[in-house]
Amino acid sequence: ADSVKLATTDVDPKERYAVGAFNFSTIPEMVGIVEGAREKNAPVILMASLGAIKYIGSLELIAETAKGIAKTYPEVPFCLHLDHATDMEQIKQAVVAGFTNVMIDASKEDFETNIARSKEIADFAHNHSPYGINGCSVEAELGMLAGHEDNIHVEESGKAYTDPSLVKEFVERTGIDALAVAIGTAHGFYKAAPEIKFDLLEEIRKQTDVALVLHGGTGVPEDDFRKCVAMGMSKINVGTGLKKVYTDAVREAIKTLPETEYDPRKIAGPGRKAIAAEIASKSDFFNCSGKA
Ligand code: G3H
Ligand code: ZN
User: Fold this and answer.
1) Where does the pLDDT of residue 2 fall: very low under 50, low under 70, confident under 90, or very high at 90 and above?
2) Which of 23, 104, 278 to mutate to test the pocket of ligand 1 (most atoms within 8 A of CB)?
3) What is the C-alpha separation between 121 and 9, in angstroms, rounded?
4) Higher pLDDT, 141 or 3
5) Residue 3: which pLDDT band, with cuts at 50, 70 and 90?
6) Mean pLDDT score of the chain, rounded to an integer?
7) How many CA atoms are closer than 13 Å to the CA of 96, on its beta-carbon side?
8) Domains of the chain
9) Which residue's CA lies nearest to atom 4 of ligand 1?
10) Is the CB of 239 under 6 A from ligand 1?
């Protein structure tokens, strides 16, 4: 279980590389993500959404699976992350189960409530991980991305860019390790390419040393990823696009195989392979290949 330990704070912002964080919905996808990272000798973050937990069965099932993956792929440093969680009890349960990074998403709440909830989780996670003090790091969000993904729905009219003047106070009062920022990306597939506000990222980066997190990685052009990383983004989340990569590969397998073929490994196996290839190529964009 030694490898389930990479916290997002392990990335020094001055190093200028980001760890890719990928949503999974099934156990074979978890393995595919780690296999892709191994191909590039890269660290990686496995993200469980609330929908994935419901579908797979429980937080514990996922945490124990991650421990098994760590034993099977000891050369890959990876982090098990709880994504966009809002239920305080569920987040604490994830910490105790062995998640090594949890996100408290109180971004829809007012500033003081967001601070109070984020601080409560930071205090708990830093002291209650089975991996010891600071064995679990904490991500919180300031500002709000538009879009839809899993349990997250925010209308275009409801989005809010991160206010850089609040960043320092938010980080200091909460004690979080990583900050999700809203700088122009959105959750889900984009209708048009996102317009990332790089000047805002620069302003935010000056305010704090904690790891910065880019949500809504699906549809972001390669050059924009590289620019964000060069400017100090440390974690980049990709969800929707990876689902499509998996499903396209499975669909293709079903189309090509004869009807007499019923082996699930031949149907779902190409999905897992396609995921690994996607993680490998994203690791290059994020400049984290070779950083394991
Ligand atoms: O937290 C998850 C991500 O922000 C994924 O966003 O589905 O647009 O790639 P995405
Ligand atoms: Zn997100």
Assistant:
1) very low
2) 23
3) 16
4) 141
5) very low
6) 93
7) 7
8) 8-285 (3.20.20.70)
9) 215
10) yes
Instruction: For residues 2 and 38, give the distance between their C-alpha atoms in angstroms, rounded to a whole number.
Output: 16
Spacing, Cα 262 to ligand 1 middle (Å): 33
- In this prediction, residue 238 carries a pLDDT of 98
Considering 2, 12, 83, 177, which one is annotated as catalytic? 83
How is residue 75 written in tokens? 């050369």
Instruction: Say if residue 4's pLDDT is above 70.
Output: no
CB atoms within 10 A of CB 254: 13
What pLDDT, on the 0 to 100 scale, is given for residue 171? 98
3-state secondary structure of 289: coil
Kindly state if the Cβ of 238 falls inside 6 Å of ligand 1. Answer: yes
Atom index in ligand 1 nearest the CA of residue 188 equals 8
Does the beta carbon of 237 lie inside 6 Å of ligand 1? yes
Grouping H, G, I as helix, E, B as strand and the rest as coil, residue 176 is: coil
Kindly state if the Cβ of 235 falls inside 6 Å of ligand 1: no
Residue 199 annotated to the active site: no
What is the per-residue pLDDT for 7? Answer: 46
Contact status, residue 272 vs residue 30, Cβ threshold 8 Å: no
Type of residue at 156: E
The arithmetic mean of pLDDT across residues 131-137, rounded, is 93
Contact present, 94 and 102 (Cβ < 8 Å): yes
Ligand 1 contacts CB of residue 25 (under 6 A): no
